[in-house]
Amino acid sequence: DKGNHRHFMEKEIYEQPEVISHALSRYMDFASNTISDNINAIDFKATSSLAISACGTAYLAGLVGKYWFERYARLPVEIDVASEFRYREMPLSPSQAALFISQSGETADTLASLRYCKDHGLKIGAVVNVRESTIARESDAIFPIMAGPEIGVASTKAFTCQLAVLASLALGAGKARGTISAEQERELVRHLAEMPRIMSRVLNLIQPQMESLSRELSKCRDVLYLGRGTSFPLAMEGALKLKEISYIHAEGYAAGELKHGPIALIDENMPVIVIAPFDRFFDKTVSNMQEVAARGGRIIFITDEAGAAASKLPTMATIVLPDVNEIIAPMIFSLPIQLLAYHTAVFMGTDVDQPRNLAKSVTVE
Ligand code: M6R
Predict the structure, then answer these.
(1) Strands 97-102 and 271-275
(2) Rounded distance, CA 228 to CA 235, Å?
(3) 229 and 67 Cβ atoms separated by less than 8 Å
(4) Measured from the CA of 155, which atom of ligand 1 is nearest?
(5) Which terminus of the chain has a lower count of CB atoms within 10 Å, N or C?
(6) Rg of the chain's alpha carbons, rounded to an integer?
(7) Ligand 1 atom at minimal distance to the Cα of residue 135
(8) Which residues contact 89 (CB under 8 A, 6 or more apart)?
(9) DSSP labels for 108-160?
(10) How do residues 212-227 score in pLDDT, each as one tens digit?
(11) Per-residue model confidence (pLDDT) at position 304
(12) Which residue of 80, 155, 236, 338 sits with most ligand 1 atoms within 8 Å of its CB, as the best mutation to test the pocket?
């Protein structure tokens, strides 16, 4: 049932504040602002490094997770798309743990990677939506993302719920490994607790601007997305979402890679979507934006209030989100990316929930 929404995808975008709060309350205790003990189903303290494998959007969630595990838990992460991971013959040891991220829990390549790790004696954790799935069944520890059924082929709420769970796991790992203090833990959990409310506010705030911008995007043949740090996987997620449902060619790049190739594509026909919260990467990303502007590129700047105040560069549009803590920025910045892709596809009249050539669950190689 789509309720009063035109598509499942739209419904699922707007469900995010609610389902994220379910995900968070499973892994944190808001009375004490601490991470719950259930994340210890993996012994992160005894783990020498973490291998993560997944496909598509789930892989991009894992890439954000890598930044968090390394930063907050000082736990090295090796991550790859499952179709490569399963055949790489990667050297593994039982001192490592492995995490598999999958909405459906049935993705063939992800399952094959899981079995490879299991054969090498690693402890297996699954970040899944469908708890009765094969990946969940074959894992030692299940971390449900609590998103509820996701019908739209383009993943939206599963992505942000995966992020919420990965943030919880990274903080829990940090706590177990003694790399975050009790005070940091309480402060970060407090920020995460505020996220559902901020998400609702942002969805209402940006909707009209996303709808009008989508008219512009629908005329383009190619779109480039740029970001640094955790905004780099988001840039790739933005590009994936747009290509899946609008069939516009899009690429996501690390902003620092611009000079190493993609800058050759910049002209007045190519919109560049820059994802840049006012974090420690902001100045670097803005200097990449400057290079785009100097070549007549049209910039759609997705930033926050502090970022909008700090940059004076001319843009085609600036999307201003509220200033939020770094730990929740990837989830909040997912919202304009999802809505831009959604409205562009609606405007172009494509089959948003069932885009051509795609299946919700890829159970063959
Ligand atoms: O069910 P899974 O999470 O394992 O699926 C992985 C990918 O097939 C999936 O995320 C795909 O990339 C989506 N269509 C993205 O919107």
Answers:
(1) unpaired
(2) 9
(3) yes
(4) 16
(5) N
(6) 20
(7) 4
(8) none
(9) HHHHHHHHHHHHTT-EEEEEES-TTSHHHHT-SEEEE-------SSS-SHHHH
(10) 999 999 999 999 999 9
(11) 98
(12) 155
Strands 222-227 and 271-275: parallel
- Substitution site in 80, 107, 363 for ligand 1 pocket (most atoms within 8 Å of beta carbon): 107
Instruction: Output the pTM of the full model.
Output: 0.98
Mean pLDDT for the chain overall: 97
Residue carrying the six token digits 């007549």: 296
What amino acid occupies position 257?
E
Q: Active-site residues: which are they? A: 360
Span 281-323, pLDDT tens digits: 999 999 999 999 999 999 999 999 999 999 989 999 999 999 9
Other CB atoms within a 10 A radius of the CB of residue 194 amount to 12
Please give the structure tokens belonging to residue 192.
Answer: 């995460």
- d(CA 100, CA 141) in angstroms, rounded, equals 11
Reading the block at residue 118, the tokens are 């299991």
Beta bridge partners of 318: 301
- The size of the chain, in residues, is 365
Protein residue with its CA nearest to atom 12 in ligand 1: 56
Nearest CA to ligand 1 atom 4: 102
Structure-block tokens of residue 107:
């993705």
What DSSP element (H or E) covers 330?
helix 329-348
103 CB within 6 A, ligand 1: yes
Query: What is the position in ligand 1's atom list of the atom closest to the CA of 104?
Result: 1
Atom of ligand 1 nearest to the CA of 107: 4
3-state secondary structure of 198: helix
Q: Ligand 1 pocket, 362 CB below 6 A?
A: yes
Decide if 198 contacts 330 (C-beta within 8 A). no
Substitution site in 102, 103, 132, 153 for ligand 1 pocket (most atoms within 8 Å of beta carbon):
103
